[in-house]
Design goal:
This protein is about 45% helix and about 15% strand. It has a seven-stranded mixed beta sheet with strand order 3-2-1-4-5-7-6, with helices on both faces. It has two domains: about 5-115 and about 225-315, Rossmann fold (3-Layer(aba) Sandwich); about 140-220, DNA polymerase, domain 1, CATH 1.10.150.170. The chain is an alpha/beta fold. The longest helix has 15 residues, at about 225-240. Residues about 1-10 have low confidence and may be disordered. S-adenosylmethionine (SAM) binds near residues 63 and 228.
C-alpha cells in the first residue's frame, strides 16, 4: 500500500446511521462481549468501546481492506478490540477463535455499503462518479461487476436486475448491456448508467436516477449480500447468550424482509401446527421481538441523508 493510498483512506469518513438507537438497543453490559459485524469506519464500534468496561470485548468484522486498515490504525492500542477481515457469515469460526465461552452478549449489523465505498469513484459503486465497474466490497475476491456482466448471458443479468433491484425494464436493460459490451462501449460506471437510462422512456426527469435499481441489484449480487445475511442470522442464534441482543440496521425492503421474517419465525409460534406438543413449540421460540421497526428521527435525517431509508429491528435471545 503506498502513502497516497493511506492518506486517501484516512480522509474518508462515514457518519454512522441511527448511532444512539442502535447502541442503546444492544443493552450493553460492562464486561460483555459484542460483535460489530460491519465495522466500516468504526462509528458504531467506537460507541460500543465507550460503553464496555476493561473486561468487556468487541470483535469487529469487515471484508473491506480499507476498513481493516482503519480499524488496525485507530484501535490498535485498545486491548479489548479485535478485528477480523472476513465475510460476516464466518461469524461462528471468528467467535470460536476469539471467545473461550463461544457466546456473545450482542451482535450489530449495519448493512450495505459505507460512504467511503460509495464516494470513492475507483470502487465503482456509484453511477454519479466515473470509475471502473467494480463494486466489490472485498477487493481480493475475483468477480468484479464488469467481469460478471461479460460472462453472464441476457437471461442471467435480467434475473438479477429483477430479483435484487425490482427493475421493471430488466430484460430490455440486460439486452442493451450485452449489446454495449459487444460493441466495446461499456467500461465504466457512467457508461453503464447511460445504457440503463436509454432503456427508460424519455421524460424530462425521474424522481430517482433510473440506474439506481440496477446498480443496487448488481452490487447485491456481486457481494452475495442477501445470502450473507440469511446465513449470519441463523448463526447468531447459536452464539447469543440468553438476554443477548441482535440489532440490525437495513436500508432496503429486500434486506428488511429477511430480518423481519427471521425474527417473526423465531419469536412467534403461528407457523407451528397446533397439534405439536407444547415442548416442541417452545423449542422453536428462541427470540423475543423488541419494539420494532425503528426509524430515524427527522433531525437525524436532516444531518445524515442515508438515515432516510434506515430501519432498525431488534430481537433478544430467550
Ligand atoms: C454501512 S457500512 C457500516 C458502517 C459502520 N457501522 C460505521 O459506523 O462506520 C457497512 C460495512 O459492512 C461491510 N460489509 C457488508 N457486508 C459484509 C459482509 N457480508 N461481510 C463483512 N463485511 C461486510 C462493508 O464492507 C461496509 O464497510
Amino acid at each position: 500500500m503506498n502513502l497516497n493510498y493511506k492518506l486517501e483512506i484516512m480522509n474518508t469518513s462515514h457518519q454512522p446511521v441511527m448511532l444512539n438507537t442502535a447502541i442503546n438497543n444492544l443493552n450493553i453490559i460492562s464486561d460483555g462481549t459484542y460483535i460489530d459485524c460491519t465495522f466500516g469506519r468504526g462509528g458504531h464500534s467506537k460507541k460500543i468501546l465507550n460503553k464496555i468496561g476493561l473486561n468487556g470485548k468487541l470483535i469487529a468484522i469487515d471484508k473491506d481492506q480499507e476498513a481493516e486498515y482503519c480499524a488496525r490504525k485507530n484501535f490498535k492500542n485498545d486491548k479489548r478490540f479485535i478485528f477480523e477481515r472476513s465475510n460476516f457469515s464466518n461469524i461462528l469460526n471468528i467467535v470460536e477463535k476469539h471467545n473461550q465461552s463461544k457466546k456473545v452478549n450482542g451482535i450489530l449489523l449495519d448493512l450495505g455499503v459505507s460512504s467511503p465505498q460509495l464516494d470513492n469513484a475507483e470502487r465503482g459503486f456509484s453511477f454519479m462518479k466515473e470509475g471502473p465497474l467494480d463494486m466489490r466490497m472485498d477487493t481480493s475476491s475475483n468477480l468484479t461487476a464488469l467481469a460478471w456482466l461479460r460472462e453472464a448471458d441476457v437471461k442471467e443479468i435480467s434475473i438479477v436486475l429483477k430479483k435484487y433491484g425490482e427493475e421493471k425494464y430488466s430484460y430490455k436493460i440486460s439486452k442493451s448491456i450485452k449489446k454495449a459490451l459487444e460493441e466495446n462501449l461499456l467500461h465504466t460506471t457512467v457508461d453503464l448508467s447511460k445504457v440503463i437510462n436509454e432503456c427508460y422512456p424519455k421524460r424530462t426527469s425521474y424522481k430517482k436516477n433510473p440506474a439506481t435499481k440496477s446498480f443496487q441489484a448488481i452490487r447485491i449480487f456481486i457481494n452475495k449480500e442477501l445470502q450473507e445475511l440469511e446465513k449470519i442470522l441463523d448463526d447468531c442464534l447459536k452464539i447469543m447468550e440468553i438476554g443477548g441482543r441482535l440489532v440490525v440496521i437495513s436500508f432496503h425492503s429486500l434486506e428488511d424482509r429477511i430480518v423481519k421474517n427471521f425474527i417473526n419465525n423465531h419469536s412467534t409460534n403461528k407457523n407451528i401446527i397446533s397439534k405439536l406438543p407444547i415442548k416442541n413449540i417452545s423449542q422453536n421460540l428462541n427470540l423475543k421481538k423488541v419494539k420494532t421497526p425503528l426509524n430515524a428521527t427527522q433531525e437525524e435525517i436532516k444531518e445524515n441523508i442515508r438515515a432516510r431509508s434506515a430501519k432498525i429491528r431488534v430481537a433478544e435471545r430467550i
